Amino acid sequence: MGHTTAFSVLGLLSLLVGTCFSSSLRDQVRDRISVLPGQPRNVGFAQYSGYVTVNEQAGRALFYWLVESPAVRGAESRPLVLWLNGGPGCSSVAYGAAEEIGPFHVRPDGKTLYLNPYSWNNLANLLFLESPAGVGFSYSNRTSDLYTAGDQRTAEDAYTFLVNWFERFPQYKHRDFYIAGESYAGHYVPQLSQIVYRRNKGIRNPAINFKGFLVGNAVTDDYHDYIGTFEYWWTHGLISDSSYHMLRAACNSGSSQHPSLECMRALNVAEAELGNIDPYSIFTRPCNNTASLRRNLRGHYPWMSRAYDPCTERHAEVYFNLPEVQKALHANVTRISYPWKTCSDIVGNYWADSPLSMLPIYSELIAAGLKIWVYSGDTDAVVPVTATRYSIDALKLPTITNWHPWYDNGKVGGWSQVYKGLTFVTVTGAGHEVPLHRPRQAFIVFRSFLENKPMPT
Ligand SMILES: *[C@@H]1O[C@H](CO)[C@@H](O)[C@H](O)[C@H]1NC(C)=O
Ligand SMILES: *[C@@H]1O[C@H](CO)[C@@H](O)[C@H](O)[C@H]1NC(C)=O
Ligand SMILES: *[C@@H]1O[C@H](CO)[C@@H](O)[C@H](O)[C@H]1NC(C)=O
User: Fold this and answer.
1) Which of 57, 220, 269, 353 is positioned for an S-S bond with 391, CB 3.0–4.6 A?
2) Which of 281, 274, 303 is nearest to 432 (CA)?
3) What is the pLDDT of the chain when averaged over all its residues?
4) CA-to-CA distance for 156 and 159, rounded, in angstroms?
5) What is the distance in A from the centroid of ligand 1 to the CA of 339?
6) 292 phi and psi, to 5 degrees?
7) Is the pLDDT of residue 308 over 80?
8) Which residues, by range, are in coiled-coil regions (predicted)?
9) 413, 422 contact by CB (below 8 A)
10) pTM of the entire structure?
């Protein structure tokens, strides 16, 4: 090949790359959030949000919200973390961003935001994704998609999202990238991780520089999760002996997303026995706006007078439905026919495929040498610590460091066990949403994960 040909090919290439880069850069600039209604001023970090089309034929687009690290903390050299909530059908904006790990939490007025001092964006750039289509601001123009959502399409759409998103944000290519999430995202996170890992295989210096994942109170393996959940309910005195035996007999196989009729009956009996507690956090009061009841409960249970607000998701529902908020977020640009909700009943109720176990994926990704951390708030009765322990035990991993307490300022923050290829951490006193109930301890877990260091002792 002569000089001229090589030169012109290179010239054409750089021209193409240049055009592509500038159009994606235009999208990025368009997505920049100037300021959110009611947010504190001069926060020192940048935010972007908008849509990424994942299927043109159907007209499916996923909504993301990127919250960067503060410039003074070196945002441009920090890793990127994708955060997913579960349900299925629940929004990462409602939970992850607005009441767990994001910098802005919503005040009870539903109009103003306050700073979360333990926001994970102090350590990493955070990418919140509302997934799948039908959740939050993410939509599909083909309505039937909402009634046929399932694990597989969710993972494939999320992967397509990532590929397109990295084109829009080329500054994040080749940077350390992690996937994190909680609850039913215990499915999404390993499934998406597996796709990214497999597509990256054999590529040197891949654009999506995937390093590992982190899950909390994660649905992992239906069989072991069930055993551990029923045991938790019984040992915490939440259900009767007979219900315990009935659950063990009726729900010993099959899917937690699609339980048998017999299992469903046993679950209904158990639920009635649990009564009006918050199963996601069994020692804190459930959300109830009546002032008298609140006062009563505070009188009985002094530890409940702390700052934690069990109605916080209701405030988010007010805030994210404000037209001026949607405008600032570049959300709902197609005038979606239903309101923004914290969880989509349609997506959740009609959920299709849901594999029984994530453990084979764990085995594959552990063998690949990825960084894998699993944490658990130990006052959650929905995906309890016992469920997670049985599921991890089923992986039969050799232990590197035995079960031991970890400390925060001289106080036990929880316990940890390091396995070959997987680190397990509990956070004591935390419910299902660990960063909501124990923000400081959750921050320490996240920092240790990023630094790949054992929990502080
Ligand atoms: C969905 O339909 C609206 C209205 O026709 C259109 O503006 C929008 O681009 C479509 N979304 C996608 C992802 O194709
Ligand atoms: C809230 O409190 C009122 C009055 O005590 C009660 O009737 C209602 O059922 C409670 N709601 C919830 C969701 O607990
Ligand atoms: C989208 O906007 C329309 C008004 O244009 C509103 O009725 C609808 O509730 C909004 N939906 C979502 C998901 O934000």
Assistant:
1) 220
2) 281
3) 91
4) 5
5) 17
6) -65, -45
7) no
8) none
9) no
10) 0.91
